[in-house]
Each structure stands twice: as structure tokens, then as C-alpha cells.
Amino acid sequence: MISVTDICKDFGGRAAVTDVSFDCVPGTITxxxxxxxxxxxxxxxxxxxLVSPTRGLATIDGVxxxxxxxxxxxxxxxxxxxxxxxxxxxxxxxxxxxxxxGVPTARADEVLAQxxxxxxxGKLVRNCSLGMRQRLSIGLALLGEPRYLILDxxxxxxxxxxxxxxxxxxxxxxxxxxxxxxxxxxLKEVESIADNLVIVDQGRVAARGTLAxxxxxxxxxxVSATDAAALRDALDKEGIEHHRQGGDVFxxxxxxxxxxxxxxxxxxxxxxxxxxxxxxxxxxxxxISRISAVGSxxxx
Length: 300
Ligand SMILES: Nc1ncnc2c1ncn2[C@@H]1O[C@H](COP(=O)(O)OP(=O)(O)OP(=O)(O)O)[C@@H](O)[C@H]1O
Fold this sequence. Notes:
single chain; alpha/beta; Rossmann fold; 2 domains; four-stranded antiparallel β-sheet; 11 helices; globular; binds adenosine-5'-triphosphate
């Protein structure tokens, strides 16, 4: 488990992170979300022993990162893809990292293929696109087959297929019982990947919980069906709140329930849109505006 307890960081007397606490349990993906400068990277760096906390404790597997016996085999880290050595090739970079953490060369080549960079193995890092560097950085994180993945802004620079790829990869990692913590300022991306959210603003936790806890357990689904009247009848029978929206039906339930309902009643669904995005956006802005209000009361 990853445990962050009342962690604080001041830089030159200025608070960057204040009393941040959260846990990440195995088998889940946690998204650390917040606007630019909110303190996300500082939290991750404290967790990884790269910045020492002014107060508080951050542990992985019950100990601070620096006390892990072989951190490279336990925790996969991707912090800043622009920090990779520009004069090394992709393969050279990953093989060097493999030799440092005691992983066979064959595994390095396997990871290069896994992140879609095998055809470019001879390219120098300085000649790689941002997306390629991001893939390399994620490959470095995966190298030691770690139980924990800690990724700072992993979707930065990735195109839509790259984003879909990383989503699948992280979900598979969590399904294997591993723990994923990622930071992002991209609300929609985190919403589609994470099981749990920790929203930070101005260094403080603004909101924390599962997506359902934060936006309500039944966010609502917009459904198009060839027979909308039959759909409305079925929703009535099941006692599911609904109303018309254009030619569609907005039902206050989960997509899974609509799928089951359609199957049970033989209704052909032609389109189904989960209408949570605007609610999560609303929740996000409400959370961070509460922190801003506290900050302005304190004259921050
Ligand atoms: N080494 C440092 N020295 C002084 N101030 C720092 C240092 N590192 C971070 N800060 C400050 O701490 C605050 C939080 O920065 P941090 O990089 O953690 O935010 P972030 O949420 O990761 O932002 P972004 O999404 O823009 O990367 C910012 O005000 C930043 O200027």
C-alpha cells in the first residue's frame, strides 16, 4: 500500500504542500488531480524520497521509499520524460536502466516492444518526439515488473491512441493486484482511468474519494433506443428516474443497469452516453474554489 500521512512541504518558507493524506490500495488506480502548481509533483517527489517533507510521512509497502530493499524492482517511476539523457539511443537507455536494477537485457528489449518503440530502437533520445519520450519513460517504469507504478502526468504528449494504450496498460496493472498512482491536470483522462481521486489545490486536499463518492453513485446516462417508449416503460417498471431529452431518454442510473435492462426487455439501444463528465467538472471546480476561498480568507 502507498500511504501519505499529513505530509507538508515548505520551499523557502512558502507552503507548497500542506497536510496531504491519502492511501492507495493494491488493485486500484488513484489519480492525483489538480491545476498547475497545485503541489502534485511535490507530493510524488516526497513519496519517492526526492524532496524531504517539512513534516509528515510517506511510505510504500510500510517504509519510506529510500528504505525499500530494491526500489527499482518494487516501484516503477515516470517523473519527467524531458529529463532523459539526450545522447543515448532508446535501446541504450533502457538497457542501461536494466543493468542498474539487475534486470536481464532480454527484458529491456521486451519492454521496448511493449511500449511500441522497438522499431525505433536505434534513435537518439534527442531526436524523439515528446510522445516517444513519454513511452520510453513509461517503459523505464515497467522494466523491473514493479508492484507499484508512480507516474507524473503520464499522458502528456500522447496522442489519442497513446492515451488509450496507457489506459489499458494501467488498468491491466491494477487488475493484476498492483497499485497505480498517477498525477494529471487532465480531468477527463483521470476520470476514465482512476478508481479513486485525490484533488489537490494550493497544496491542500480539496476532495478525495471514489468517482461515485465524489459525483454521486448514479451519475446518469443518456440513451437512444429504436423504441424510446418501450425504454421508458421498462425504466418505469424498474423504478428508475428518467426524463426525455430531445429524442433520447436521460436515466438516472449506471450504464451497466441500462445494458441489463435492454437485454431483459429486448430493447435495441443505438447510443449510450455516460453523462458524468460535466458533473465531475462541476465537482472539481467546486472543490478547488472552496480551497481558494479558504486561501483568500487567510490572505494566501
Ligand atoms: N524546488 C522548488 N523550489 C521552490 N518552489 C517549488 C519547488 N518545487 C515546486 N515549487 C513550488 O511548489 C508549488 C507546487 O509545485 P508542483 O510542481 O508540485 O505543482 P504541480 O501540481 O505538479 O504543477 P504542474 O501541474 O504545473 O506540474 C508551486 O508553487 C511551485 O512553484
